[in-house]
Please model this.
Amino acid sequence: MTSSQLFEQIKLKRSFLCIGLDTDINKIPEFLLTKDDPIFEFNKGIIDATAEYAVAYKPNLAFYERYGAAGWNSLQKTVKYIRTKYPDIFTIADAKRGDIANTSAMYAKTFFSVLDFHAATISPYMGHDSTMPFLAYEGKWAIVLALTSNNSFSDFQMLDCGNSGKKLFEEVIEKSMHWGSDANMMYVVGATRHEHIKKVREIVPDHFLLVPGVGEQGGNLADVVRNGMNSKCGLLVNSARGIIYADNSMRFAGAAKTAALKLQTEMEALLKEASII
Amino acid sequence: MTSSQLFEQIKLKRSFLCIGLDTDINKIPEFLLTKDDPIFEFNKGIIDATAEYAVAYKPNLAFYERYGAAGWNSLQKTVKYIRTKYPDIFTIADAKRGDIANTSAMYAKTFFSVLDFHAATISPYMGHDSTMPFLAYEGKWAIVLALTSNNSFSDFQMLDCGNSGKKLFEEVIEKSMHWGSDANMMYVVGATRHEHIKKVREIVPDHFLLVPGVGEQGGNLADVVRNGMNSKCGLLVNSARGIIYADNSMRFAGAAKTAALKLQTEMEALLKEASII
Model:
């Protein structure tokens, strides 16, 4: 998927919502547990209920690996379901992989050929070897961790580097932006870091930013938009728990729909305010 | 497994060899391809041929995920085979995971409960949240990436941090060493970085170091030992391609055995030289 196709979807759906499919069998409605593949059944319910409001889905791999081979089957079925039924929706493997070059090439093959995701998240610690294999696929994206939404983001990402007064996350963006372009790279910037989103936007004015941490982790949507939106939106804002676990009864899908609609409505207002739609 | 149990194995086998089970279906002997699970059959052959010389096995997850659910089955069977037949051998999930706390907890459960590995490799970029869940398991280990063996290690790991003159990899070790202890944490330091292994050894005199990159990646065993060995060995030196792909005919296992024996013989001499055995 190209960035202009993604932008078209954003304008069409009046939304830049990414839904995190972090599906935990201990949190899904009990009645699903008798199904052959409860995780896939849950995902299908969530996807069908929210597809009109979401421009992207992002399963976190940890939640699938947790169930070994069965979990991988659920993941594979989930991606295939989205890619087949909703081919215009962007799909992200939230894998945070990063390895030496030939090993990263294996990961890229897994996510882009075997599973047919549009994008995968990458941990930058091992340098460009980890990212380059993901950039070799036409229409696919590497989404590099810059500033994460978790509590210990500051352990290393906020270290001062060199004599430049730059933080490590700035070095990561400034170096890695030359490995690809705004046509095949995005950056993860946590919503809870809104004071730094502006800084990131200055460094990469045209890249899409994937922003987790709105809602449950305390990030505020209007702050994210004020600091990070560009003329082509340039944002995918992720929400997981607040949508997928809005209710754990028979009505889980309807509750997810309501929660997604609520966020989409806020996003629509913000897109209008920015004269994007 | 405790560090003294690991040290006992090192003395018993006169070896600190870790074998990387980076099993690529395109590189294994053709006659195995007719088997139900060629990857597992190959691993079994390698393991049985080399178990007397190796103190650890380290499958890299990328090589298994590449085959989706089937690959996870091969991995699960491989770990179970080692844990059952060779319970004294240390097993490492080379996964390089790193995520927010609740997600890292999922990964820890996967590698330590579902798959019963002794250790998993962790990427430090997201800080202590990524590592802590792995330290909650008795007898299990987190192996944090410090200085990797790949070409682009210097993109970020070698950045000067703060005003201290320290490199990022030093900051990673100095900060993370307080999250656990030498009883549940190790560090990855590439064999190709032998000029820095000494530095790492100064910071963490008692921790085990997992050292990839000997052989195929150009690292030299004697250099690694000179700079990194401590009084309890403190090293696990990994070799993958040089052992597991020593031959790709019917005689692959015998050739792997010969290659492992060659490294073990060198290691025995070095352990004697250091008066450890």
About this structure: The CA atoms of residues 44 and 78 of chain B lie 7 Å apart. The first helix of chain B runs from residue 3 to 13. Strands of chain B lie at 17-20, 54-58, 90-97, 119-122, 141-147, 160-161, 166-167, 185-189, 208-211, 235-239. The two ends of chain B are 21 Å apart (CA to CA).
